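input
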Amino acid sequence: MARPIEYISSIDDSKNLWKVAVRCKHLWYVTSSQNREHLELILFDSKLDLIQAIVPSYLVSKFKTQLELGCSYIMQNFKVSSNDFSFKSTDHKFKLIFCGSTSVKKVQLADIPLNHLKLIGINAIIEGKYRTNLLYDIIGGVTEISQAQIIPDNNKSKVVFSLTDLSKHHVQCTLWGKLAVQLNEYYTTHKADGSIVLLLMNARIKEPQGNYPLNVLNAWNGTKLLINDLSIEEVKNLKEKLKDDLPTLSSSSMQMETTNTSVFSDLDKFVWKAEVLSLSDIAYLQTETTCVTVATLEKFECGQSGWYYDGCSECTKSVTLKDGKFMCYSKHISSEPVPRFKLEVLASDGKLKYKFVFWDVDCVKLIGKSALQMKLDLMEIMHSRNP
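output
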């Protein structure tokens, strides 16, 4: 007897044998510091509830040809895990993880709408009616472009502009990387389109900090940008209602003066829009802050695990050996632990001394190799000295 289809709202970690009828709202690839690629997607059902799902790297080749944006499916058999993302694409308490027994069947499901947006208005953003760890869909008209730096060869490209909607309030928006390049390319090739109304799917809202204003920005690969897409009813309606309020691409407020190469030094890039704080100032911070400090590195602090820790193959958490299996706090099981950097350094500014921790993603960028490769290199050196 076939199992009944259940709703996304019912999903919890009491079992793994869930069977759902869903449509794929969004999908994107994520590449880890070890250059391993996994797939993330957002699914919704006929009740318009959403849940995020992950296809681990070892299963991407199996499922990548089966999963398509906008298509509907009957899916069953997943691992269910806590929704522990730092920035969550849905407010569901759990996420789905594809496994070897996961079944995906494409079917036409007319009861599930073709599109579903979890929109937040600009007025609600300004009033603080949002969660800083939740990603949102945002529609707005571009009223001014204040800054643009386009460097297509890397993720340093940046465009800063102002968005408005029917509330007539404005919020600053910053796009980085590929989305900044996408907006710039549209700007240069669609001058005849007049004004711009865009949809940001899965966008992050960053609270104001010090001198830095409230800001909407992309969550890298997880954010999708649609520009003047009139096939989306909400975009079409807003463009029509704001047609007399938005400047055209040829107006003075919409001039995008870009640079194709960076005109900034390495130090300029490092302190880009960041406050300079002393160690004592940092010690009294009560909120997350982007800042720059100047200090002297006195020594490395090596704990019991040394300069790295044994990490999970699916996330960045550490693993422990339980019942012959390596398991992290999120209950991911790894066949082998993945070495990940954790460097602790003691720094001094002449008055105070504080310990700083550099995690894997930053260390890989600074050192130029993974913790695994570093470990193998050191083992080879030790072996050559003690054959």
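quick obs: The domain at 8-106 is CATH 2.40.50.140 (OB fold (Dihydrolipoamide Acetyltransferase, E2P)).
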